[in-house]
Amino acid sequence: MEPPLLAIANSYIEESSEHCQEDAKLAARKCLEELIDNKITPEVALSTCYSILGVDTPAKNICAILAISPEPINFSQPLFNYHSTRHHVRKWSKYEDQRLIAGVHRLGFENWTKIAEFVGNGRTRSQCSQRWLRGLDPSISKDKWTDEEESQLIRLVSEYGTKAWRRISTQMKNRSDVQCRYHFAQLKRSKRSGKILSMQKSMKETDSQSFIKNDLIDFNTQDNINMYEMNDAKVQPERPIIW
Fold first, then answer.
1. Which of 63, 89, 214, 237 has CB atoms 3.0–4.6 Å from 42's, for a disulfide?
2. Closest CA to 155 of 209, 203, 205
3. What is the CATH number of the domain that holds 98?
4. Paired residues of 120 in beta bridges
5. What string of pLDDT tens digits covers the 243 residues of the chain?
């Protein structure tokens, strides 16, 4: 499994080098990998990254994460607005995101409680894990949804319903549960709503045909069993009566 910070570095490279050749991206990736492994200094990484990509933003971002202080952010204000009828969680700041990435890099995925303590500012283990899984995890695709992904999403919603987004996102693999729920709502409001209805109808017909087929198989099997029993009864000789 790829180390999380290296995956983050790779996403920074992709964002900053859209028009670069693949060999340039690979060279930049190797540079940032050496920076993460402490084989080169930040100054060397910055200059090397700039010479390869024409920008040093990926190296700057990784340097900032590696330089994060171990001291957590002081808890300064409530995470919820208690004067509102609904609780609105305070948005994550850029520095909080950097601390969360640094926490995952240093502590791994095993203990979100420790990561939350590292982040500070009153963030809970649940908030940290959800922020990572739904927003910062580099395995989550930020690209436009493809037709294949939309068809898979519709099929999974037809199968599991609209209450199992975590399960659906797991099978989508590169989309978060929030992305799946939001995009399905968009599909229902768009011209593609007809596609959803036709696919759901097709799946229901398939399920119905499968049920009828299985029912006939069971029925025929039972008929065969009864027939065999009748034949066996005819073939078996009568037992002699013993007085």
1. 63
2. 203
3. 1.10.10.60
4. 73
5. 689 999 999 999 999 987 889 999 999 999 999 999 999 999 999 999 999 999 999 999 999 999 999 999 998 665 555 454 455 668 999 999 999 999 999 999 889 999 999 999 999 999 999 999 889 998 888 889 999 999 999 999 999 999 999 999 999 988 999 999 999 999 988 866 666 666 656 655 555 444 334 443 343 434 443 443 444 444 344 444 343
Domain-ending residue, one of 106, 134, 162: 134
Total structural domains in the chain?
Answer: 3
Q: Is residue 72 part of a domain?
A: no
Tell whether 171 and 127 lie within a shared domain.
Answer: no
**Residue among 87, 90, 110, 114 at smallest CA distance from 100:** 114
Residues 53 and 98 in one domain: no
Q: How far apart are the first and last CA of the chain?
A: 82
CA angle, 211 then 214 then 218, to 5°: 135
Q: Are the C-beta atoms of 104 and 132 separated by less than 8 Å?
A: yes
